[in-house]
UniProtKB/TrEMBL annotation:
InterPro entries: MJ1316 (IPR040459), UPF0248 (IPR007547). It comes from Archaeoglobus fulgidus. Coiled coil: none annotated. This is UPF0248 protein ENP88_02925. HAMAP family: UPF0248 (MF_01245).
Length: 78
């Protein structure tokens, strides 16, 4: 079975008509606070290597540890 990347999952949740992207939450590793949660509403663009946020921050995709849709975890780094 193929393992999908965080980027592939985020793009599916953003563009597939069955999903409401505003229900997505991303959990990322942070060097200072351990982990941070980012709402999909904060994302400007899903790039090849980074998530570009509306406030100008760039989150490297290798720091994504979990993607949640509502109350369900839909992707988790293994």
């Amino acid at each position: 079975m193929r393992k999908y990347s965080a980027r592939e999952i985020l793009n599916k949740l953003k563009w597939h008509p069955e999903y409401d992207f505003s229900k997505v939450e991303i959990v990322c590793m942070d060097r200072f606070s351990g982990s941070i949660r980012i709402s999909a509403r904060e994302i400007e663009e899903i790039g090849q290597k980074f998530l570009f946020l509306k406030d100008g921050k760039m989150i490297p995709q290798h720091r994504i540890i979990e993607i949640r849709y509502g109350d369900e975890t839909v992707w988790k780094r293994s």
